[in-house]
Amino acid sequence: MKVQVDSSKCQGHNRCMIFAPEVFEVDDYGFASAQRGGEVPAELADKARTAAANCPELAIVISED
């Protein structure tokens, strides 16, 4: 699984960090990006899906490999 944060949609609510801090990181301005180039370890896949489902702007894109 890969995740990507659409920077044009992210508003810095950081809900992804609440649900999956092992998958996402935020910059100094509070905008999110994916860790590890977006590669999500299998054991964190459910957390990544939960974060995507809870993003108010739907800025998180998941691609299942």
TrEMBL record:
Q: Which Pfam families does this entry report, sorted A to Z?
A: Fer4_15
**Cofactor(s) demanded:** [3Fe-4S] cluster
For this protein, the record's InterPro entries field holds: Fe-S_cluster_ET
Alphabetically ordered keywords of this record: 3Fe-4S, Electron transport, Iron, Iron-sulfur, Metal-binding, Transport
Q: What is this protein called?
A: Ferredoxin
Q: Which Gene3D superfamilies match?
A: 3.30.70.20
